[in-house]
Amino acid sequence: MATPREIKKRINSFKNTRKITRTMEMVSTAKSKKLSDRVNASHPFSNKIKELVGSLASLSEVVNSPYLRRPRTTRNVALLVITANRGLCGGYNSNTNRLAKARIQELREKGIGVRLFVVGKKGSSYFRFTGEKIEKSYTHINDKSGYKEAEEFAEFFLELFAKEEVDAVEIVSTVYLSSASQKPAVTKILPFESDAKGNAGDSVLYEPSPAQILESLLPLVVKTAFLKAILEATCSEELARRVAMKSATDASSDMIKLLTRGYNRIRQAKITQEISEIVAGADSLN
Q1: Structural contact between residues 242 and 34, judged by C-beta atoms closer than 8 angstroms
Q2: With contact defined as beta carbons under 8 Å apart, do 79 and 167 qualify?
Q3: Any bridge partners for residue 281, and if so which?
Q4: Is the pLDDT of residue 286 over 80?
Q5: pLDDT (tens digit per residue) in 57-87
């Protein structure tokens, strides 16, 4: 049975842990609020770009752009997996890694080659452990990343697609649905999938020509897709860390209550024993 001193040390240890987890929870709450505001602010622009490109979809066969290439058969797929550099965020990294692993197996069963690109230290370590070949890993993405990083990714993968080194580009990341709901998903970036209902004529007058507008907008659509993926992934990471730290803080509080109850019980038993010994000694003297 543990002594009161040992129990007291454990109580102090859990109190220190609770201070750390509560601080991390507060930091993640502040970061997630800023990131969720950025995600929500980016939606109108990205939706409008998609709407505009969708209205020009009927010109996709007329415009001579390498970005509108539609391969008859898919031979190679570039897969970008977005994870975190740090842990302590629940199942955020493991869920994304498992989905990416399942997607790789699915593509290989169809005879399609996979070129793997990984964002985050957690994803890199996972795929190295499983024996997957990583063509390139990125560890510079954090909660401050934005359009600059998205533009770098977009230009790199657009070049691979234009040179026909890959026939498709996909992103495996956590999608932000709301502050209470985020889930990992596979997002197809290239080849460009347009809405067949789009029409470039009728009530809209385009200047310059619709074909020129479509050709110039295509890279912007891809950049916006990468920006959306980065912002949603980093926001989901902080939300997952906030929930994990909240659970850790609550668990520490429960352990402190349990240990304090045990400590008081042992202390009370010891005091009762000492009183009994004193009374017994006094009776023996009489």
Answers
A1: no
A2: no
A3: none
A4: no
A5: 666 666 677 777 888 899 999 999 999 999 9
Please tell me the CATH superfamily of domain 25-194+204-241, with its number: ATP synthase, F1 complex, gamma subunit (3.40.1380.10)
Domain positions in the chain are: 4-24+244-279, 25-194+204-241
Q: Which residue matches tokens 């912007």?
A: 220
Catalytic residue among 89, 116, 169, 233: 89
pLDDT band of 91, cuts 50, 70, 90:
very high
Is 89 assigned a catalytic role?
A: yes
Distance CA(209)–CA(151), nearest Å, equals: 25
Task: Count CA within 13 A, CB hemisphere, residue 235.
Answer: 26
Question: Per residue in 105-160, pLDDT tens?
Answer: 999 999 999 999 999 999 999 999 999 999 999 999 999 999 999 999 999 999 99
Q: Which pTM does this prediction carry?
A: 0.86
- Backbone phi, psi, residue 224, to 5°: -65, -35
Long-range own/partner contacts, residues 132-138 (CB < 8 A, 24 or more apart): 132/101, 132/104
166: pLDDT confidence band, cut at 50, 70 and 90? very high
The pair of three-digit structure tokens given for residue 222, joined into one six-digit string: 């891809």
Between CA 264 and CA 258 the distance in angstroms is 10
Per CATH, the number for 4-24+244-279 is: 1.10.287.80
Q: Which of 155, 80, 144, 67 is nearest to 115 (CA)?
A: 80
**Do 4-24+244-279 and 25-194+204-241 fold alike per CATH?**
no
